[in-house]
Design goal:
By secondary structure, this protein is α/β, with parallel strands linked by helices. The chain is 43% helix and 14% strand. α1 (11-24) runs parallel beside α11 (235-242). It is globular.
């Protein structure tokens, strides 16, 4: 269960939130929980969560160890501040920063080379869904973003299916729509890596996940977790999401 804080929260606000999460989720060791604060709060959050069962992720990286790349952050720097995870290929980055599948693939390989775990986001636009192209669009993204990624490295990859029309809109995919797409993604993984890797890969749903819809989403057989934006910004709602009941 992962929280994507996007461009929200100061260091102080981040620390207050993770303190509340740490206290409330101390007994939830059977569910992998990850928070992804903005870069500026990563170090403080990682320090605050050290020794807890909550992991820390970044929301992006640049695929080089270091260099003259003004404004960018490398995988090595993420490890240095205590990150275990990174979100890659989020639709907001694809849309506002023109990130192509080829660039996302470079980032995926860089993250894995440095030992990070990653959440790779894929998803179709409303227009693509209305044209009935969601399966082909998402399958192609998965194939291109994972090019040259080994079966062994897939142990550190989770995929988040995030239909763009459901992100931040309050309009969530139905549990059935989510499950259907998760199954399609698992089929692609099965074709690329075989059934064992396909079954072993966590496929998260993202897009307006809330305390009120998480239980139904998580009840679907192919929904292994969620990537939560808005509802991860408040302790109470994220705690309820992590504590989903099926
Ligand atoms: P949302 O965002 O939960 O606010 O819809 C999800 C995401 O973009 O990861």
């Amino acid at each position: 269960m992962a929280g994507n804080w996007k461009m929200y929260k100061s260091v102080g606000e981040s620390l207050a939130l993770v303190q509340a999460l740490k206290e409330a989720l101390g007994d939830v060791s059977h569910r992998e929980t990850v928070v992804c604060p903005p870069f500026t709060a990563l170090h403080a959050v990682a320090e605050a969560l050290r020794g807890s069962n909550i992991e820390v992720g970044a929301q992006n990286l640049y695929p080089a160890e270091e260099g003259a790349y003004t404004g960018e952050v490398s995988p090595k720097m993420l490890l240095d501040v205590g990150c275990q995870y990174v979100i890659l290929g989020h639709s907001e980055r694809r849309q506002y920063f023109q990130e192509s599948d080829a660039f996302v693939n470079e980032k995926v390989k860089a993250a894995l080379d440095y030992g990070l775990k990653l959440i790779l986001c894929v998803g179709e636009t409303l227009e693509q869904r209305e044209q009935g192209r969601q399966r082909s669009v998402v399958s192609a993204q998965v194939g291109r973003d994972l090019e040259d990624v080994s079966a062994d490295a897939m142990k550190r990859v989770a995929i988040a299916y995030e239909p763009i029309w459901a992100i931040g809109t309050g309009r969530t995919a139905t549990p059935q729509q989510a499950n259907e797409m998760h199954r399609a993604i698992r089929d692609v993984l099965s074709g690329l890596y075989g059934g064992e890797v396909a079954q072993g890969t966590s496929i998260l749903y993202g897009g307006s996940v809330k305390p009120l819809n998480v239980d139904d989403l998580m009840a679907e057989p192919d929904v292994d977790g969620t990537l939560v934006g808005g509802a991860s910004l408040e302790a109470e709602s994220f705690i309820r999401i992590v504590r989903f009941q099926t």
